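Q&A FORM
Asked by: J.P.
Topic: structure of Cation-transporting P-type ATPase N-terminal domain-containing protein

PROVIDED:
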Amino acid sequence: NQNFDVKAKHSSEEALEKWRNLCGVVKNPKRRFRFTANLSKRYEAAAMRRTNQEKLRIAVLVSKAAFQFISGVAPSEYTVPEEVKAAGFDICADELGSIVESHDVKKLKFHGGVDGLACKLKASPTEGLSTTDASHLSQRQDLFGINKFAESELKSFWLFVWEALQDMTLMILGVCAFVSLIVGIATEGWPKGSHDGLGIVASILFVVFVTATSDYRQSLQFRDLDKEKKKITVQVTRNGFRQKMSIYELLPGDVVHLGIGDQVPADGLFLSGFSVVIDESSLTGESEPVMVNAENPFLLSGTKVQDGSCKMMVTTVGMRTQWGKLMATLTEGGDDETPLQ
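REPLIED BY: S.T.
REPLY: Here is the structure written out as tokens.
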């Protein structure tokens, strides 16, 4: 610490790089540095995130430009799918998503504006959804989805066993055990000549299973902690009353109240508010102020409220949202966690 200023947490990258270079030649570095940030992988992950974000930003901007180009063309006649009509709704999830993601004001007007969409969703901009009929909420969930994203699968215990076997020291011991078995059996016969070799094998298996069990239990604990971090609540109006609700319970038609610092929990449309500025840098790479009004009422999931407060009506949830697609892209290209060696 005196010479390199390496702190237990939040050390500078320069200090970590200098320390790792001086401590590079050590016995079993994979185990020694397993709780230390791998700077090269951190740089690779950061570069990959920037690349994915830039690709998505370009895709969003291109889609906006394309829809602006064709905005002069009147929307085609929309046909409500039979299953949606049978459930009592007059618009489907795909149509709602296309309206909000593309900021398509013309199509929004075609459906009667925000009030028209609320009517087609059988929701009230002031009273919110009605929870008196549980089956109706269940139908809404089946048709429009739930506000959850696909999570990466938990690695199996045997995968941790395989990773533990990749340790160089254990590989060398494995070779020694093999040689010991061959030499011992050749000189002293079976089973006396196999004792040393089998002892080494037993030691290797013991170390592997202890390491794999420890890593597997840690992965379970991290997964539980991650679930706790994701328990986010928002203020929602249902049955005319304002109440706290998990973001996972949101459905199209819900009326959500947002303030400074809140992250938009789903795609939606602005209902009312004042001086609202939305930060869309997580999607486009640039901050874009929303002039809270009939011309631009679109709020994309994952963006943050920088200033003001407002009410929004949820239109799209889960993987159908722009934020859900971004999370899927980042999951395929690399996660946000600091890589460990």
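FOLLOW-UP: The longest helix spans residues 195-229.
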